[in-house]
Amino acid sequence: MNKSVLSRRAFLAQSGAALAGLALFNSSWAARAFALQDGDVILPWLDQRIGDPPPERVANQQTWEKLNSWITPNDQFFSIAHYNRPEIDAANWRLEIGGLVNQPLTFTLDEIKALPRREVIFTLECSGNNGRPVVDSIIGNAQWAGTPLATLLEQAGVLEEGREVVFIGADAGEEMIREQTIVQHFARSMSLEDAMNPDNLLVYEMNGEALPQPNGYPLRLIAPGWFGIANIKWLERIEVWDTRLMNRWMARDYVTLRNEGTEEEPIWTESSVSRNLLKSAPGRVVQNGDNFRIDGAAWGAPIAAVEVKIDDGEWQLAQLDTTQQAEYAWVFWSLGWPDAQVGEHRISSRAIDTDGNIQPAPDDPLIANKVTYWESNGQLTRLVNIGM
Ligand SMILES: Nc1nc2c(c(=O)[nH]1)N[C@H]1C(S)=C(S)[C@@H](COP(=O)(O)O)O[C@H]1N2
Ligand SMILES: [Mo]
Questions:
Q1: Which ligand minimizes its atom distance to the CA of 61?
Q2: How far does the centroid of ligand 1 lie from the alpha carbon of residue 220, in Å?
Q3: Does the structure show a pLDDT above 60 at 280?
Q4: Is the CB of 124 under 6 A from ligand 1?
Q5: Does residue 304 line the site of ligand 1, with CB under 6 A?
Q6: What is the pLDDT of residues 340-376, one digit of tens each?
Q7: How far apart are CA 167 and CA 235, in angstroms?
Q8: Is the per-residue pLDDT at 134 higher than 60?
Q9: 3-class SS at 63?
Q10: How far apart (Å, rounded) are the C-alpha atoms in residues 232 and 56?
Q11: Residue with CA closest to ligand 1 atom 20
């Protein structure tokens, strides 16, 4: 990713100056990002999605215009199911831990709930949240509660030859491999080192309620910092292997295909979708009387700043909403637009992380050389009309 030309110090000085400027204009706007005030009118984007993804696969997709809280309420949270959506009776459900372990283990839900409880606020984004036209907001932020995965793996005792941890869901479907049709459970694996990260939780609670059925009831993996696909729902079995899982969801689908050579002599790389990437999106334009503002969100890395461009203007520093922040959560931002002119306008945003990396432009090779739509963290531009 490109490094910002500004040093971190210059950058902070610049943002301080811009913040002071904004503060003069309207000091309360930052805290208000996405929270509607009296008189606020949301201007719908002109570039609405032209098709909807099949509802059996993507349910409850939100639009940015409707977003009104930093924590996404459970009944507004999107849900993805690549096979069926199993309805599990918790009384008969068990979690098994097996494979290359000293001591295979089985847990009931009550036994898992009796283990040490940890919470994390984590913004879950599907790596297929690729901008328009079909999907632009399969993302949500929730407070998840569960117990650390590492403790259970330690209790089972991973054998020395253990390399990968495989997470297997209760949902299953048919896959065809070389003319053989098999029924396979949804599953993904991650390296033992990644799996042992103390932030990974086996989660039974979402925003203070039992995990909703579409989001993985009774238990799911939450791997903060990883794209949605790693966060296996309806979890039934965890296995330690000495090889990587090579099923559809690791090796054929959710694979990013990129040309790292030239057009004449392509060098294709294929990589399995993994960690979140630095990203932001303009969320909506809000009018209040003669005042306009742009609200948005940034996520995927520790966010230092967000800049917004209107039409072909300069990048302007947005004000970050520092009243609602957490390590793995999105940051809301807002930019006053005092001189909005009647007519159609293009609104773009770019996030900058604390290492100075800038969210890539659409023509950045990272984005331009990618031929699959997964992991599309390029800058987004949206269209709005300012009426008379
Ligand atoms: N068992 C299982 N887990 C799964 C999936 C699935 O189809 N089955 N979909 C994955 C994908 S692609 C995403 S983006 C997230 C979405 O989580 P949510 O449905 O709670 O929003 O779940 C992941 N976990
Ligand atoms: Mo996804």
A1: 1
A2: 9
A3: yes
A4: yes
A5: no
A6: 999 999 999 999 999 999 999 999 999 999 999 999 9
A7: 7
A8: yes
A9: coil
A10: 18
A11: 215
